[in-house]
Amino acid sequence: MRYVGFLFSIAALSVLSACGGTHSLSVGTNPNSSSSAGHTVADGVTSKETPLATARPVAKITSPSPADKLIALTFDDGPRPYVLFGGKTVHPGPGLVDILDQNGVKATFFVVGWRLTPKTWGEPRHEEDIGVSCIDAAEQLIRRGHELEDHTYSHLELRTAEKKNGEQWVMHDVDRGAQAIKAVTGTQPRYVRPPDWILTDDARRDLQKQGYRVLTISSENPIALRDVNSLDYLCAGKAVGCPKPSLPDAVLQQIEQREKKGTYTHILAFHELSTTAAIMPRLITDLKARGYRFVTLTEYMKLVESKPGETMRQTTADVKQPTSVAALRR
Protein backbone atom coordinates (compact mmCIF):
# COMPACT_ATOMS: atom_id res chain seq x y z
CA MET A 1 0.00 0.00 0.00
CA ARG A 2 2.86 2.38 0.88
CA TYR A 3 4.31 1.71 -2.61
CA VAL A 4 0.94 2.51 -4.29
CA GLY A 5 0.59 5.70 -2.21
CA PHE A 6 4.10 6.68 -3.27
CA LEU A 7 3.13 6.28 -6.93
CA PHE A 8 -0.01 8.42 -6.44
CA SER A 9 2.10 11.15 -4.85
CA ILE A 10 4.51 11.21 -7.79
CA ALA A 11 1.57 11.43 -10.26
CA ALA A 12 -0.01 14.33 -8.39
CA LEU A 13 3.26 16.26 -8.37
CA SER A 14 3.62 15.72 -12.14
CA VAL A 15 0.13 17.11 -12.83
CA LEU A 16 0.76 20.20 -10.68
CA SER A 17 4.09 20.81 -12.41
CA ALA A 18 2.49 20.55 -15.86
CA CYS A 19 -0.29 23.01 -14.96
CA GLY A 20 2.18 25.53 -13.59
CA GLY A 21 4.29 25.33 -16.80
CA THR A 22 1.30 25.96 -19.03
CA HIS A 23 0.21 28.98 -17.04
CA SER A 24 3.62 30.60 -17.36
CA LEU A 25 3.53 30.63 -21.23
CA SER A 26 1.47 33.80 -21.84
CA VAL A 27 1.30 34.60 -25.57
CA GLY A 28 3.54 37.51 -26.44
CA THR A 29 5.37 37.72 -23.11
CA ASN A 30 8.23 35.36 -23.83
CA PRO A 31 10.04 36.12 -27.09
CA ASN A 32 12.23 33.03 -26.66
CA SER A 33 9.38 30.57 -26.43
CA SER A 34 8.48 28.38 -29.40
CA SER A 35 4.96 29.84 -29.55
CA SER A 36 6.03 33.47 -29.92
CA ALA A 37 8.97 32.70 -32.18
CA GLY A 38 6.64 31.30 -34.85
CA HIS A 39 4.27 34.30 -34.67
CA THR A 40 4.99 37.10 -37.18
CA VAL A 41 3.34 40.44 -38.00
CA ALA A 42 1.93 38.90 -41.16
CA ASP A 43 0.10 36.30 -39.05
CA GLY A 44 -1.49 38.84 -36.71
CA VAL A 45 -0.84 41.12 -33.75
CA THR A 46 -1.47 39.74 -30.27
CA SER A 47 -1.05 41.02 -26.73
CA LYS A 48 -1.55 39.85 -23.16
CA GLU A 49 -5.20 40.86 -23.43
CA THR A 50 -5.80 39.36 -26.90
CA PRO A 51 -6.12 35.57 -27.14
CA LEU A 52 -4.26 34.02 -30.06
CA ALA A 53 -7.47 32.59 -31.49
CA THR A 54 -9.04 36.06 -31.88
CA ALA A 55 -6.02 37.89 -33.37
CA ARG A 56 -6.83 39.45 -36.77
CA PRO A 57 -4.36 39.37 -39.67
CA VAL A 58 -2.84 42.67 -40.78
CA ALA A 59 -4.21 43.82 -44.14
CA LYS A 60 -1.80 43.34 -46.99
CA ILE A 61 -0.98 46.62 -48.74
CA THR A 62 -0.84 46.42 -52.51
CA SER A 63 0.17 49.10 -54.96
CA PRO A 64 -2.26 49.98 -57.76
CA SER A 65 -1.88 48.19 -61.07
CA PRO A 66 -1.00 50.14 -64.25
CA ALA A 67 -4.67 49.88 -65.24
CA ASP A 68 -5.52 52.02 -62.21
CA LYS A 69 -2.78 54.63 -62.70
CA LEU A 70 -4.10 57.19 -65.17
CA ILE A 71 -2.95 60.50 -66.64
CA ALA A 72 -5.24 62.81 -68.61
CA LEU A 73 -2.85 65.18 -70.36
CA THR A 74 -4.49 68.51 -71.25
CA PHE A 75 -3.31 71.72 -72.92
CA ASP A 76 -4.94 75.17 -72.83
CA ASP A 77 -4.96 78.34 -74.96
CA GLY A 78 -4.61 76.91 -78.47
CA PRO A 79 -4.64 75.95 -81.18
CA ARG A 80 -1.17 77.42 -81.65
CA PRO A 81 0.19 75.94 -84.88
CA TYR A 82 3.81 76.93 -84.23
CA VAL A 83 3.71 74.97 -80.94
CA LEU A 84 1.77 72.01 -82.30
CA PHE A 85 3.91 71.54 -85.42
CA GLY A 86 7.16 73.28 -84.54
CA GLY A 87 8.39 76.76 -85.35
CA LYS A 88 10.67 77.46 -88.30
CA THR A 89 12.59 80.49 -87.02
CA VAL A 90 11.71 81.90 -83.61
CA HIS A 91 10.88 78.58 -81.93
CA PRO A 92 12.64 75.82 -83.88
CA GLY A 93 12.24 72.29 -82.64
CA PRO A 94 9.86 69.34 -82.71
CA GLY A 95 6.16 70.09 -82.56
CA LEU A 96 4.01 69.00 -79.64
CA VAL A 97 1.80 66.81 -81.85
CA ASP A 98 4.78 64.80 -83.14
CA ILE A 99 6.08 64.37 -79.59
CA LEU A 100 2.73 62.99 -78.47
CA ASP A 101 2.49 60.69 -81.50
CA GLN A 102 6.02 59.35 -80.97
CA ASN A 103 5.12 58.47 -77.38
CA GLY A 104 1.71 57.00 -78.19
CA VAL A 105 -0.14 59.62 -76.13
CA LYS A 106 -3.58 61.06 -76.87
CA ALA A 107 -4.30 64.40 -75.21
CA THR A 108 -7.19 66.81 -74.69
CA PHE A 109 -6.85 70.38 -75.92
CA PHE A 110 -8.91 73.17 -74.35
CA VAL A 111 -9.02 75.59 -77.24
CA VAL A 112 -10.06 79.25 -77.52
CA GLY A 113 -13.00 79.94 -79.82
CA TRP A 114 -11.73 83.11 -81.53
CA ARG A 115 -8.80 81.13 -82.91
CA LEU A 116 -11.21 78.87 -84.80
CA THR A 117 -12.23 81.59 -87.20
CA PRO A 118 -11.20 81.55 -90.89
CA LYS A 119 -7.65 82.60 -91.80
CA THR A 120 -6.62 82.95 -88.15
CA TRP A 121 -3.18 81.58 -87.27
CA GLY A 122 -2.52 83.27 -83.89
CA GLU A 123 -1.44 86.52 -82.29
CA PRO A 124 0.95 88.44 -84.58
CA ARG A 125 2.77 90.08 -81.66
CA HIS A 126 3.65 86.85 -79.85
CA GLU A 127 3.31 83.94 -82.24
CA GLU A 128 5.02 82.72 -85.37
CA ASP A 129 3.09 82.21 -88.60
CA ILE A 130 4.18 78.84 -90.01
CA GLY A 131 1.59 78.84 -92.78
CA VAL A 132 -0.94 76.69 -90.91
CA SER A 133 -4.24 78.17 -89.75
CA CYS A 134 -5.69 77.38 -86.34
CA ILE A 135 -8.65 75.61 -87.95
CA ASP A 136 -6.26 73.40 -89.96
CA ALA A 137 -4.35 72.65 -86.75
CA ALA A 138 -7.56 71.74 -84.92
CA GLU A 139 -8.60 69.41 -87.73
CA GLN A 140 -5.23 67.68 -87.62
CA LEU A 141 -5.56 67.19 -83.86
CA ILE A 142 -8.89 65.43 -84.38
CA ARG A 143 -7.50 63.24 -87.18
CA ARG A 144 -4.65 62.16 -84.91
CA GLY A 145 -7.04 61.03 -82.17
CA HIS A 146 -6.87 63.96 -79.78
CA GLU A 147 -9.85 65.77 -78.22
CA LEU A 148 -10.99 69.40 -78.30
CA GLU A 149 -12.81 70.97 -75.35
CA ASP A 150 -13.94 74.47 -74.42
CA HIS A 151 -11.70 77.22 -73.03
CA THR A 152 -14.29 79.96 -73.83
CA TYR A 153 -14.43 82.11 -76.96
CA SER A 154 -12.73 85.28 -75.69
CA HIS A 155 -10.26 83.81 -73.15
CA LEU A 156 -11.20 86.65 -70.77
CA GLU A 157 -11.21 86.09 -67.02
CA LEU A 158 -14.89 85.34 -66.50
CA ARG A 159 -15.54 86.69 -63.02
CA THR A 160 -14.34 90.16 -64.02
CA ALA A 161 -16.23 89.90 -67.30
CA GLU A 162 -19.40 88.98 -65.43
CA LYS A 163 -19.14 92.04 -63.19
CA LYS A 164 -18.84 94.23 -66.26
CA ASN A 165 -21.22 92.52 -68.69
CA GLY A 166 -23.48 90.25 -66.60
CA GLU A 167 -23.77 86.50 -66.31
CA GLN A 168 -25.53 86.07 -69.64
CA TRP A 169 -22.42 87.38 -71.36
CA VAL A 170 -20.39 84.63 -69.65
CA MET A 171 -22.85 81.94 -70.69
CA HIS A 172 -22.80 83.25 -74.26
CA ASP A 173 -18.98 83.34 -74.33
CA VAL A 174 -18.74 79.69 -73.26
CA ASP A 175 -21.45 78.69 -75.72
CA ARG A 176 -19.84 80.63 -78.53
CA GLY A 177 -16.57 78.81 -77.91
CA ALA A 178 -18.42 75.49 -77.92
CA GLN A 179 -20.09 76.27 -81.26
CA ALA A 180 -16.72 77.13 -82.82
CA ILE A 181 -15.38 73.74 -81.69
CA LYS A 182 -18.48 71.90 -82.88
CA ALA A 183 -18.05 73.44 -86.33
CA VAL A 184 -14.69 71.67 -86.54
CA THR A 185 -15.41 68.39 -84.74
CA GLY A 186 -19.13 67.92 -85.34
CA THR A 187 -19.50 67.21 -81.61
CA GLN A 188 -20.72 69.42 -78.79
CA PRO A 189 -17.97 69.90 -76.16
CA ARG A 190 -18.77 68.48 -72.74
CA TYR A 191 -16.05 70.09 -70.64
CA VAL A 192 -15.14 73.70 -70.02
CA ARG A 193 -12.07 75.03 -68.23
CA PRO A 194 -12.50 78.73 -67.37
CA PRO A 195 -9.40 80.89 -67.92
CA ASP A 196 -7.38 80.93 -64.69
CA TRP A 197 -10.05 78.57 -63.24
CA ILE A 198 -12.03 81.65 -62.14
CA LEU A 199 -15.83 81.53 -62.26
CA THR A 200 -18.66 82.70 -60.01
CA ASP A 201 -20.87 80.19 -58.22
CA ASP A 202 -23.96 81.21 -60.16
CA ALA A 203 -22.24 80.90 -63.53
CA ARG A 204 -20.90 77.47 -62.66
CA ARG A 205 -24.32 76.20 -61.59
CA ASP A 206 -25.94 77.52 -64.76
CA LEU A 207 -23.23 75.98 -66.96
CA GLN A 208 -23.78 72.64 -65.26
CA LYS A 209 -27.52 72.93 -65.88
CA GLN A 210 -26.69 73.29 -69.56
CA GLY A 211 -24.73 70.02 -69.44
CA TYR A 212 -21.15 71.29 -69.11
CA ARG A 213 -18.63 69.78 -66.72
CA VAL A 214 -16.55 72.61 -65.27
CA LEU A 215 -12.92 71.73 -64.53
CA THR A 216 -11.35 73.36 -61.51
CA ILE A 217 -8.44 73.28 -59.07
CA SER A 218 -10.77 73.87 -56.13
CA SER A 219 -10.19 71.66 -53.09
CA GLU A 220 -13.97 71.35 -52.81
CA ASN A 221 -13.89 68.82 -55.65
CA PRO A 222 -12.80 65.20 -55.16
CA ILE A 223 -9.03 65.11 -55.59
CA ALA A 224 -9.18 62.73 -58.57
CA LEU A 225 -11.36 65.25 -60.44
CA ARG A 226 -9.20 68.25 -59.60
CA ASP A 227 -6.80 69.72 -62.14
CA VAL A 228 -3.10 69.57 -61.33
CA ASN A 229 -1.78 73.05 -62.10
CA SER A 230 1.59 72.46 -63.76
CA LEU A 231 2.62 76.14 -63.47
CA ASP A 232 4.22 75.78 -66.90
CA TYR A 233 3.24 79.35 -67.86
CA LEU A 234 5.84 80.56 -65.35
CA CYS A 235 8.54 78.94 -67.50
CA ALA A 236 7.71 80.85 -70.69
CA GLY A 237 9.29 84.12 -71.78
CA LYS A 238 11.67 85.32 -69.08
CA ALA A 239 10.79 82.21 -67.02
CA VAL A 240 10.08 84.28 -63.92
CA GLY A 241 9.05 81.92 -61.14
CA CYS A 242 9.58 78.69 -63.08
CA PRO A 243 9.41 75.81 -60.57
CA LYS A 244 12.69 74.41 -59.29
CA PRO A 245 14.69 72.31 -59.90
CA SER A 246 12.80 71.92 -63.19
CA LEU A 247 9.24 71.88 -64.50
CA PRO A 248 9.11 68.07 -64.93
CA ASP A 249 10.47 67.56 -61.40
CA ALA A 250 7.91 69.99 -59.97
CA VAL A 251 5.03 68.19 -61.70
CA LEU A 252 6.29 64.81 -60.50
CA GLN A 253 6.50 66.18 -56.95
CA GLN A 254 2.84 67.21 -57.14
CA ILE A 255 1.92 63.74 -58.33
CA GLU A 256 3.90 62.15 -55.50
CA GLN A 257 2.04 64.29 -52.97
CA ARG A 258 -1.27 63.11 -54.41
CA GLU A 259 -0.06 59.49 -54.33
CA LYS A 260 0.61 59.86 -50.59
CA LYS A 261 -3.12 60.58 -50.24
CA GLY A 262 -3.92 57.41 -52.17
CA THR A 263 -4.69 59.13 -55.50
CA TYR A 264 -3.21 57.56 -58.63
CA THR A 265 -5.35 59.34 -61.23
CA HIS A 266 -4.41 62.85 -62.36
CA ILE A 267 -5.65 65.53 -64.78
CA LEU A 268 -2.54 67.51 -65.73
CA ALA A 269 -3.17 71.08 -66.91
CA PHE A 270 -0.53 72.49 -69.27
CA HIS A 271 -0.54 75.18 -71.95
CA GLU A 272 0.39 75.24 -75.62
CA LEU A 273 3.87 76.68 -75.13
CA SER A 274 7.15 75.83 -76.85
CA THR A 275 8.83 75.50 -73.45
CA THR A 276 6.17 73.03 -72.38
CA ALA A 277 6.51 70.98 -75.57
CA ALA A 278 10.26 70.73 -74.94
CA ILE A 279 9.85 69.00 -71.55
CA MET A 280 7.13 66.58 -72.64
CA PRO A 281 9.41 63.70 -73.79
CA ARG A 282 11.07 63.47 -70.38
CA LEU A 283 7.84 63.89 -68.40
CA ILE A 284 5.98 61.27 -70.42
CA THR A 285 8.90 58.83 -70.11
CA ASP A 286 9.12 59.33 -66.34
CA LEU A 287 5.38 58.86 -65.82
CA LYS A 288 5.31 55.71 -67.93
CA ALA A 289 8.24 54.36 -65.90
CA ARG A 290 6.12 54.87 -62.79
CA GLY A 291 3.38 52.69 -64.29
CA TYR A 292 1.05 55.40 -65.56
CA ARG A 293 -0.87 55.20 -68.80
CA PHE A 294 -2.21 58.16 -70.75
CA VAL A 295 -5.85 58.55 -71.73
CA THR A 296 -8.08 61.29 -73.11
CA LEU A 297 -10.17 63.28 -70.66
CA THR A 298 -13.34 61.53 -71.82
CA GLU A 299 -11.85 58.10 -71.13
CA TYR A 300 -10.37 59.31 -67.84
CA MET A 301 -13.75 60.45 -66.54
CA LYS A 302 -15.42 57.19 -67.53
CA LEU A 303 -12.75 55.10 -65.81
CA VAL A 304 -12.46 57.18 -62.64
CA GLU A 305 -16.18 57.63 -62.11
CA SER A 306 -16.86 53.92 -62.71
CA LYS A 307 -14.70 52.94 -59.75
CA PRO A 308 -16.58 52.15 -56.54
CA GLY A 309 -15.61 53.83 -53.30
CA GLU A 310 -15.32 57.25 -51.78
CA THR A 311 -14.26 59.05 -54.95
CA MET A 312 -17.39 57.95 -56.78
CA ARG A 313 -19.64 58.92 -53.84
CA GLN A 314 -18.04 62.36 -53.68
CA THR A 315 -18.40 62.76 -57.42
CA THR A 316 -22.09 61.94 -57.30
CA ALA A 317 -22.63 64.40 -54.49
CA ASP A 318 -20.72 67.07 -56.39
CA VAL A 319 -22.92 66.66 -59.46
CA LYS A 320 -26.14 66.86 -57.44
CA GLN A 321 -24.99 69.84 -55.39
CA PRO A 322 -22.51 71.91 -57.41
CA THR A 323 -19.79 73.47 -55.35
CA SER A 324 -18.21 76.81 -56.04
CA VAL A 325 -15.06 77.27 -58.09
CA ALA A 326 -12.38 78.86 -55.99
CA ALA A 327 -11.15 82.19 -57.32
CA LEU A 328 -7.64 80.96 -57.86
CA ARG A 329 -5.40 82.65 -60.38
CA ARG A 330 -2.58 81.03 -62.27
3D architecture notes:
It is a single chain. By secondary structure, the protein is of the alpha/beta class. It has a single domain (66-320), classed as Alpha-Beta Barrel (TIM Barrel), CATH 3.20.20. It has twelve helices and eight strands. It has helices at 2-23, 34-37, 81-85, 96-102, 134-143, 158-165, 167-185, 201-209, 247-260, 274-289, 297-305, 310-320, and strands at 70-78, 108-111, 147-150, 191-192, 213-214, 227-229, 265-271, 293-295. Strands 1, 2, 3, 6, 7 and 8 form a six-stranded parallel beta sheet that branches. The radius of gyration is 31 Å and the shape is globular. Mean pLDDT is 80; it is low at 1-62 and 310-330.
Features:
globular; alpha/beta; TIM Barrel; disordered N terminus; disordered C terminus; 8 strands; 6-stranded parallel β-sheet
Q: Give helix % range.
A: 40-55%
CATH-defined architecture:
Alpha-Beta Barrel
What sequence of helices (H) and strands (E) makes up the elements? HHEHHEHEHHEHEEHEHEHH
Distance between the termini: 102 Å
Mean pLDDT, as a whole number?
80
Low-confidence stretches: 1-62, 310-330
Biggest sheet, open or closed, and with what strands and sense? 6 strands, parallel
Q: Which superfamily, in CATH terms, is the homologous superfamily?
A: Glycoside hydrolase/deacetylase
What is the CATH C-level name?
Answer: Alpha Beta
